[in-house]
Structure formats: structure tokens, C-alpha cells
């Protein structure tokens, strides 16, 4: 089993950043959720705690050693400015929407996408000695984190997910705010509508932060093209995810297309591409980073699919089996259906299709499906695919004309975010440990 490295040296909604946030030195704990308070001190305290004293080095100057701190510093300063701006427009808006959103961004997540931007920049020739360029790259990296925050808020809305990072999702928290204040109308509708605005705000702020990261001439033009493509691809992936569920498309090819657009591209490949563009990287270097990034990103999403079924809420920050309850047509499910047909396992195929067509899985039902997926050999096949993708990506990086320090960090980061192994599922009560006849 591979082990997760510190995100600061280097170190993810999967497409949904499911995993429990990794705490690093200097990151304060998440402030409690103030669903019914007018003003929450947590964000201001976080902002003050991360401002360097005059005699200290700013975190940007040591980004190679502690990238998380450098990104956190950039995000905290920027969100502090935007929170003050929001308060000038409306104290209510700032307290109910902006402050909780800022706490959500600053209180969790592994900063994977910023890490790939940074190490893509370093791999393609970016040098940390130029303080101005370092600040610009960190602002671009932080903008990608805000883009991710927008995607998470909207993803939870569309999936009907109640939890994110082990806390109430934005629409759930905002509905609770409505009820606590005794407001008129339907609390759930209010929560949904306000969460849409929250995600839109995050996207607008991501664009604003990106535009504030100056890149001149051809380098700037290339970087903007990558940024624009990444936003469109992310939305396209989300749409295809919804569409394939609606049309009941169970093919592995369709599942991989969604995984690539919705997660692999904007989690790894495009952030690496963005970093390379900001560095003015050569064609061969950029192509290698994109090839490796596509494979790492797909492996990351396949691991996310496995964790959703076989992991626990402590692992993912969301209830176990969420993808199954939502009827998600993941690559894991496509592989399982294909193997069930190949093995003549009509009963197993029926159970899998029942889950996809009638979401709302019980704990006992989840236990049964875990056994089916393992018994068919589907989980093991996906594990092998992850291993192949990560190995291929590492070889691509090793052979490419890239900075050795960045290759080392990217290889460790790829290992860390795709690490894990599915445990043997516990059989449901009254059932044998194996269903029998499975091919591995």
C-alpha cells in the first residue's frame, strides 16, 4: 500500500474531494458551524493567525518546503479582502453566505489542485527565486482551489448530498439557517437557492483571483487558454454525469469519459498544464505533464469510486455508499456489470441494476453490493487499473525533460492521492463470506 505524503511537500470531491482533510502544521482547526449566528469570529481569527509578523518570512518564500502554508496564506489574504467587500454591500450577506463559505475553503481540503499547478510550474522550468513570479503562480493556484470550491457546492446540490468534509453541505447548512431564524417559506428551497448563489460567487471569485495573477505575452495567452478550457470541461463532465444517469448508460467507455472530464482533467492534468504554461514550458515538457496528469487524474477518480463504496465516512467525509444511493454509473459499476454478464451471473447483474435504477440503499443493501462487487472481481480489476495508470504516469515523468525535484514530488503526490486498497467486505447477516463462483 502506498502512503499519503504531506501536502505541504507535496501533497485532493475525487471529482468531489471526498477524503477527510489532511491537517498540516500551521493550519488551524475548522471553526464550528454558526448556522444561527449573525457574525462568526472563526474566519477573522483564522485570517489573523495566518498573517506573518513583520520579522517573519512570508510563506510564499518557502513554497517548495511548505506549499500548503503558501497557498493558505494566499487564500486567506484574498478571502479577507472579499469578505470586507461583501460586508460593505450587506452585513447579512457577509454573515450568512460569505463567512461560512470562507470557513469551508480555509478549513478543509488537501490543496491538491494548487499543488499540481505549483509542481507543474516547477517541472517546466519555474524557479522559486523570483518573488513576483512566485506570488503570481500561487494566486493562480489558489484560483483553482476556489474553482474546486464552486464545483463542490454545486455538486452537492445536484447529488443531494447532505455532508461535505464531515459537516453539513452548503445547502443543508443554509436551510438550517432559515429554520433557526424562523423565516417564512420552505427552508429546503431557500437552502438550495442560496447554495446556487454560493457556488456562483465562488466561481466569480476564482475568475477574479485568476485575472489578478499577471502573466504577460504568449505565456499569459497560453495560460488563459488552459484556464478557459478547464472551466468548460468541468461543466461538461458534470452535465455528462447527469445525462448518463438519466439515459441509464452503463458502458465503461461512458463512465471513463465522465471521469476524465469531471475529475481527471481539472484535478490533475489541467492544473499541471496551467503550471507549465505559466512557466513558458517547452512542448515536450508540457506534453509529458499532460500525459502523466491524465493518467494520475483518472487513477485518482477510480480510487474515489472505490472509496465511495468500500470506504467509511471517516475516510471520505461523506456517508459510505453515497454513489450507489445516487445511482451513479461509475466505472466500477460498469466493470461489475460487464463481468456479471461474462460470468453468467444473472442474479448479480440483477442486484447491480436494481441499485442503479432504484437509489436509496440501506446499510444491509450496501453490505450485499460490496460482496457482489468483490466476488465478481470488479473491485480487484479497478485496483489493477489504478496501479497501471500510476506506474505509467511515473515512467512518463521520469523520461521527460522535467526538473528532477518536481518529478520526485509529483511521483510522491501521485502515489499519495491514489493510495489505498479495498478491504474484504463484511458479508451481510446470514450470508456466506463469498457468494461463490467469482473470477478474480
CATH architecture assignment name of the largest domain: Orthogonal Bundle
CATH superfamily of the largest domain, by name, is Farnesyl Diphosphate Synthase
Whole-number count of domains? 2
* CATH domain class name of the largest domain: Mainly Alpha
Helix content: 55-70%
State the distance separating the first and last CA atoms.
19 Å
* Structure summary, number of beta strands: 2
Given helix and strand content, the structural type is mainly alpha
Rg, nearest Å? 22 Å
Cofactor: Mg(2+)
Region (Disordered): 1-65, 418-440
Family: Belongs to the FPP/GGPP synthase family.
Keywords: Magnesium, Metal-binding, Transferase
Verbal overview:
Strands 1-2 form a two-stranded antiparallel ribbon. The chain folds into two domains: 61-112 and 128-213, Farnesyl Diphosphate Synthase, CATH 1.10.600; 214-425, Farnesyl Diphosphate Synthase, CATH 1.10.600. The two termini are 19 Å apart. Residues 1-42, 45-57 and 427-440 have low confidence and may be disordered. The relative contact order is 0.12. Helices cover 66% and strands 1% of the residues. It has helices spanning 42-50, 67-89, 91-106, 112-123, 131-159, 170-180, 187-211, 217-247, 252-278, 283-310, 313-316, 322-325, 331-342, 346-357, 363-375, 378-399, 404-417; strands spanning 163-164, 167-168. By secondary structure, the protein is mainly alpha-helical. Belongs to the FPP/GGPP synthase family. Keywords: Magnesium, Metal-binding, Transferase. Residues 1-65, 418-440 are annotated as: Disordered. Residues 48-59 have a biased composition (Basic and acidic residues). Residues 23-41 have a biased composition (Low complexity).
